[in-house]
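**User:** My hope is that you can spare some time for a protein that puzzles me. I have put the entry right below:
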Amino acid sequence: MIKNRIVYTSMAILLLLFGVMVAVLPNLGIETKNTEYSYETLVFNKSKVTTVDIEIPQEDWEDMLENAADEELKQANITINGKTIENVAIRTKGNLTLRSVVNSDSDRYSLKVDFDYYDDTQSLYGLKKLNLNNNYSDSTLMREYISYELMEKMGLPTPAHSYMYVTVNGEERGLYLGVEAVDETFLANNYGSNDGFLFKPDGVGSDLKYISDDIADYTGIGLKTNEDNIEDSKLTDMLDAINNGGDIEQYIDVDEMLRYFAVNTALVNLDSYQGNMKHNYYLYENNGVFSIIPWDYNMSFGGFNVGGGGMGGGNPNQMRGNTNKELPEGETDENADIPAVTQSQVGQANGEQAQGGQLNGEQPQGGQPNGEQPQEGQLNGEQAQEGQPNANRDKGGFNMLNGMSGDLMADSAINFSVSTPVSGTTLEERPLLNALLSNETYRAKYEGYLEQLATNYLTEDYIQSITNNLAMLLTSYQEADPTKFTTTEQFLEGVSGDNSLPEFAKQRSASILKQLSGELVVETSATAQGNMAMPNGDTNNEANGNQMQMPDDFDPSQLPEDFDPSQLPADFDPSQMPEGGMGNEQGGKANGGPMQRPDGMGFPNQGNGQATQETGIDKSTVLTATATFSFLVAALLFVFRFNRRGR
């Protein structure tokens, strides 16, 4: 009996120790995940809202808000889910979105956190850089998140992403979408190597037209990695192949790019290579073969100048903001949001300009930082009525609410062409896409991926399941958000109903299937695809014969400060525009200091406001623990049966 008691006692102690190891140790902050890229689950946990607490000298924070357009780096400490990383760099980020917030009554800026700026050995579970996107222009707060989810479903390398609630020096800043930066860490994690060449096209050459065999001529295809070995890149060979009929399979991952363009087309994401701005994507060359990496989807679901949506119109001098800013060494501008000078596809065959406000009119007060209604504009993105040039504009020349809800169900978005999936340009002007769709075999694959999306992922039921889950997760945070751009009611409109993302998915997927079967034919023309008008421009400009024809390499930063499009002659040639920056002063100052939380509005689900530590147990740990537990149980059963036989 003594021996039996000793055995039982020993087994009980082992079980107790096992329970302590599994249940207690991870919550004490001991990292049990033995992998270089554990940030994918420890930082970007999609089942919860991650807590991000920033500590920064108050004078530095106020200076950052007061001079947000400078994007100056500040030193700070950051705590994410209870884990503190000291001595990190933080700055405001963006381009059009940044400029628009600067010129509004809000100080809700997107932020970039650089964990290894001061110490290149430092990271957060392997993560080197984190973007905190402010969900500008998206009242649903879900467009970018869902877009990345669909990219993942289609097997594309996609930045890690999840929602985060941000505080600065103890004051709440609100609900953001955290997105992994596309950098060396991302490349190594997704491609197994970061020794290749990462390009961020945005400017001359970003349409991927062949210019010459001198890579220096492609000034808009920025190289972000491996700069010292640029002569080894096959970029010009790839461009020659897609433009001049070479073997494109030698240079590009055809299947991956077909999946990418299928998702982009299905989501009507036109602030991209498929739009006239030809940006918001990365190219990664690994062993001479190019892959495409998705980026920046807050304007998907037809949010970019389709059917009256998009970023709205504004003073051309506000287009790029501080385009001549100097970023710190090693920094890139991932959020170069430039408003399209483009035309809606369906119903615009005669080159008529989009409806909306005037180019040079006065601006309204815009959205208030706490989600209050503007003085004159409409909350749901309704445009100013004809003849009211001063309505629905913020003081910086940009309507903050225009495009935030917009006409999500516009026919031009729902029935966006799948056979000629470009906006404000032609297929011939987008040689990568044209090379793929000109090949019958590739086009059949592309259409097959579109059908897969329309029947499996971009469906009412699938998107509804995502929006329902996100509504349950985010609503309390959105309600408490002191700097939000829009109301909780607008946020919930995107979850379900006649003007929701699931309804968009229902109608868009039906349109895709009808177009693929030939039941629906979407008419396109060179005029409709090629002519470009200022977004939400003055429809009366047509009478003056001043429809602006912009070249494909149009750079809004070159517009002079006193530029007035209404004075342009009918034979105006934009390629002759004078060089030089905009020289535009800030139209307004952001409020200094962090926002105060509303009275009686507690920190959602956080109790005393302390960050909760994320449990980090990976699959191998779970398997090991399960095997160990099973062994212990089996040992107990064996001892029990042996004891009974002994009796």
